[in-house]
Each structure stands twice: as structure tokens, then as C-alpha cells.
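Protocol step 4 of 5: obtain the predicted structure for the target chain.
Materials: sequence only (see below). No template structures provided, no constraints applied. The aim of this step is simply to have a reference model before the mutagenesis design in step 5. Sequence pasted as it appears in the construct record:
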Amino acid sequence: MTARRPTLLAVAALLVCSGVGAVAVGPANAAPPPESVCGVCGDGLADAAENEGIRLTVEYGTATIRVREDGSGHWDARVRIDDDAADRLAANATLRERVVRASLDRRTVVEDPRNLRTSVVNDTLVVTFDQPGVAHRSLGGVVLVDLLDPRARRAGLDLDADQLRIEGPNGTVVSRAPSAATVENGAVVWRVTDEEPGLGSDTRLAFAPSDGPAARALTTVGFVAFSVGVAEPSALALGVAPAALLGALLLAVRRWGDELPAVDPLLLSKAITGSGAAVAVLAGAALAGSVLLDAAVAETVATFAALYALVAAGAAVLDRPSARAALGWTLGASALVALAASVVSVVALQTALLSIPAALWFPLGRAGGRDRGVTVFVVVALLAAPFGAAVLYVPWASPLLGLLLSAFTTIPWAAATVAFGVPLYLLGRGPDDAADRVEADDRTDPASAD
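Step 4 output (C-alpha cells):
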């Protein structure tokens, strides 16, 4: 019974937190209407042509974007149109370019088309141009495609083409592809005939110099670092309320912590380690093909459960460790889990980072009344953590909106951090905590020397 209850609590709380994280990003990104990736492949071209007195029907449209070494992109769009419209556009180059530019000036991802060229070949409108700032180079030479990154955009994306193909710089391979796309010959392709037509909600895309776990890890770290880089200071408002709540709780623990019940560290360590390991294994098995859990939820649960179990195991492995040893074990376990998570996905790495504050309650318990330096370090880290969580949840928000969103994002996260952190705090204190305090008081009490 002791192991079963923490298992159920872990699964329930983590499922809630996973849903909160998914909902949190939605309001910030879903407000503006979506922007077309290929402005000349669909209705935008027909509307622009109609404004010029041309009735145009788009029969089929494709676009290829070649990402270059300098981060710019080269568009090659080919749109098959009806015969009459093709004849009129072929006969008048000025009219043709005016129609194309008008279609690109609508709600599209294209902001500054350069070297624009247009032609009509066999009833197919051919449009090529260049655009700077499509991608940037990150850690280890990984190229992140900013054009599609949801963290870099406030509007959604519309495929607006029958096929979209994105190719990386020469000599690179796909190191991260969206789930709605397929990888073909080193390029990423979306088709309206696929099982999931459209770009989908996950559009993060990256290319790396080589394939393998190291490239995937560098890609994931690059995405997380980019998310932090594009965050606006106003988003930190999401961290104000949880930081205040954590601060009040830490003061209460300092004042009344001695009144918390003593626990058997060996028994509690076995319960947390066993239940955490079981949950991690079950969630990992779900990633292998089970349909019981969404992939993002399974990654979240497996990552947190693995870190939680590994930190709790430190109490048994180290056997009454010092506060500094407990802190070193916790930070080492966090780094190990984060490294493994970076190979899995962005969601897994973000979960690992968001789970560290809960893990830090273990060295906080060991440091109570023993090591002031470790106590100060952990308290400062816990008070700063909500602002880091705010950046990971929503990269931009007005201060007022941030305070409102915190009720659905960082405040539930802080509550989960405390809920899972307190058992680790009790594990860190152990039954020897009171004895250590008495011995310390005896050494400092002048009356004891008489």
C-alpha cells in the first residue's frame, strides 16, 4: 500500500501538469489568424488576381524552401492554374509580378521577398525568391528553422499548398521533424493527402551536420535555448504569484519545520524509488507503441518519475549524506536525466528542467540546521525557478495576462513542485535530524560545559 499510493499520485499530478503545459501555450499563439507558408499556392493568389480583373483558379500548388548556410531561404513555388488565367499572366510580366506580390503581401510568412522572379510554363505559374532570417545556426552547427517555430511566432501557420518541401543546407540531415510531416531524401515534406493534412500544431524543424543521439541532444538543447532567447521580460509576470507562494511556504518550513513528522528514510526511499521507477518504466513502454497515453504525456511522466526516483535513491545509496553530498547527488541526477531527456524530445527536456525544483527539496531537508550555505543556495534556486518556468511556458504575455495565465500554468506547477518536494524534504531530514540539532545545541550552549 505504501508504494501504490505515491504511484497513483504521481501519475495523476503529472497528467494534470502536462495538460496545463499544453493549454498554456495555446492562448498566446492562437489569437491572430494563421499565416500562409506559400502565399501564391492557394486562395491568396486567386484573390490577388481577382483584384486585377482576372478570374483565376488554382488547380495544384507546391512549394520548396531551400534553407541556406547563412540562414536565408530560397522559395520555389509552382502553381498550376486554369488556361485563360495562365495566358493572361504569361502575356504581361508586369501584371504577373503585381499579382504575385499582392498575394505575398497578404497574411503570409514572407516579409521581405528578394530577387523575385516569375514566369508561366505550361499553364504553371513559377515563382522564386529569397528571404533572409528563415533559420539560424545553433549549438554544434545545428540549423533551427525559425520560420516554422511556434515559439518565434504569434500567429498559427496554414499550409495553403498541396505539398510543402523544406530542404536543409548542403551536407545536413534532418535532426528534428514535425510529426505531421515525412522525411524524404534528407528533406521534410507535408502533403494534404497525408493522414494528418496540414502543418499540425508541432512545427519545430531542424537540420544537423550528422545523425545520431548527440545531434538530437544538441537540437533539443538548441530549441529550449531559443525559447528562452525569444522570451519577453513581460512574460516573467507568470512567475510572481508562484514565487510569492513558495517564499511564504519556505518561511513556514523554517519556522515550523521541526513540527513535521519524522519518517523512516530507508522505507520512504524504497517507496519513492520503487514507485517512481515503476511509473517511469510504464510511461516508457507507452512511448514504444501503446495508445493509452499521448506521447507528450508519456514523455513528461517518464522524465519526472525517473528523476524523482533517482533523487530518492540517494538517501539509501549515500546513507545519511551531508547536505553538500545530497546537493551534489541531486544536481548530478538532474543533469543525467536532462541529458537523457534531450535525446528524446523538447517536451522531455523541458520536463526535466521543470522538475529540478521539486528535487531540490531533498538537499534542503539535509541542510536544515546543518549547512547554511546549501540552504541559501536551494532557497534562492526555488524562488528563481518560477520565473524560469514562466519563460518555458509562455515566451510573451502582458503583465496582466501573465498574472491570469499563472493560475493555469506556473501556480499549478508550483503546487506540484511542493506536493512532490515535501516527501523529499522529509526524506532529507530523516529521524537523525532532531538528534543532530540537539548535539549542535549542546556544543554551543555554555551551560553544557559546566
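Step 4 remarks: The longest helix spans residues 4-30. The mean pLDDT is 84.
Proceed to step 5.
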